[in-house]
Amino acid sequence: MNLTTIKKLPSIEEIIQQLPLSESGFEKIAKDSEEVKNILSGKDKRLLVIIGPCSAWPKEAVLEYAVKLKALELKVRDNLKIIMRTYIQKPRTAKGWTGPVNQPDLNSSPDIEAGIRYCREMMVQIIELGLPIADEALFTHGARGFLELLSWVAIGARSTEDQEHRIFASAVDCAVGMKNPTSGSIEIGVNSLIAAQHPHIAVFDGTEVETHGNTFAHLVLRGGERGPNYSIAHIKEAQAHMQKQRIKNPAIIIDASHDNSKINGEKSYRKQIQVVREVMKTMQGEPELRKVVKGFMVESFIKEGSQKINSKYPENIDLGGLSLTDPCLGWKETEKLLLELNQAQKNI
To answer: What number of other Cβ atoms are within 10 A of residue 5's Cβ?
Structure first.
């Protein structure tokens, strides 16, 4: 193999023992995961909102955001089910920082052992605050130690056509959101649901297993190379594909960010507000779509916008809740949007 061994990592069991979650925390995860499934199946009429930083770093700012989000969640919980984004691993279009699980300290070299500890501790603290969390399954071989903490999992646009990720989604206990690919193809996005909802024979941790299929694998529309895909026409197209393929618990989450938030080819984090408003207006005018559109994804942090990592001067990074990756809504805009969405859902 064309690689150099750096060090042997401790077992994930060791790390879990050193950074445990309380029994009440695990009970909360089970309850939150079930509530998410009830929303997707239509038993629970609330909207699902997966919201938080594009990348969950630094820990102190993420925890400050979590405290704010928890206080707001108490006000909107009758109409909205809030899941906090704690994305610890980041896919890159070409190259760049791959998230705190790989490099938790920007002033030091990547250190995966330190990153695993850093991220698990952060996730445990958020759950103990009373918030369910979500992450993207990017490196599926490193999922143990984190997967047990999640109430919702995403398969990203660059991974949704990958068979390993589809099989992984088939084996996961909680609901999994499968994004349409970067091309924007809704049909391929639905194909990923077919694969995720069916059983597979595969290898997990050196053992031959049969996955059971995840009947709560659902579609996330995030736009694509040809533009946004959150319009009435796109939602109806997705609905038709799911009906044709007999997808169980057919459901759509609208990702208000990524290619859905672009204006003239450039991403605009403020457009996320417009996307949410337009979809809610669509649902008010098209009651049938309420049966399939189950919520939103929004990128949000304490400060609006984003910053770039200067490799020569990493000490100049803003540590106060300004995104290192995609630009995010600031807290004031976030609070206003969630209160507005809460009222809109209440009125439907």
So the answer is: 6
Tell me which long-range contacts 112-118 makes (C-beta under 8 A, separation of at least 24).
112/9, 113/7, 113/9, 113/10, 115/88, 116/9, 116/12, 116/15, 116/142, 116/145, 117/15, 117/18, 117/19, 118/59
- 256 domain residue, yes or no: yes
Query: Is 179 a member of any domain?
Result: yes
- Whose tokens are 């193999």? That residue is 1
The tens place of each residue's pLDDT in the chain, 348 residues long, gives: 899 999 998 988 999 999 999 999 999 999 999 999 999 999 999 999 999 999 999 999 999 999 999 999 999 999 999 999 999 998 877 788 999 999 999 989 999 999 999 999 999 999 999 999 999 998 887 777 899 999 999 999 999 999 999 999 999 999 999 999 999 999 999 999 999 999 999 998 889 999 999 999 999 999 999 999 999 999 999 999 999 999 999 999 999 999 999 999 888 999 999 999 999 999 998 988 999 999 999 999 999 999 998 766 667 899 999 999 999 999 999 999 999 999 999 988
User: Has residue 124 been placed in a domain?
Assistant: yes
Given a contact cutoff of 8 angstroms between Cβ atoms, the answer to whether 119 and 143 are in contact is no
- The total domain count for the chain is 1
249 CA to centre of own chain: 19
> What range defines the domain where residue 83 resides?
19-347
Are 56 and 62 in contact by the 8 Å Cβ rule? The answer is yes
Residue with tokens 């820990």: 59
- Residue 73 belongs to domain with CATH number: 3.20.20.70
In a domain, 11, yes or no: no
Please state whether the predicted TM-score (pTM) of the whole model is above 0.90: yes
Nearby residues of 58 by Cβ (< 8 Å), 6 or more positions away: 100, 319
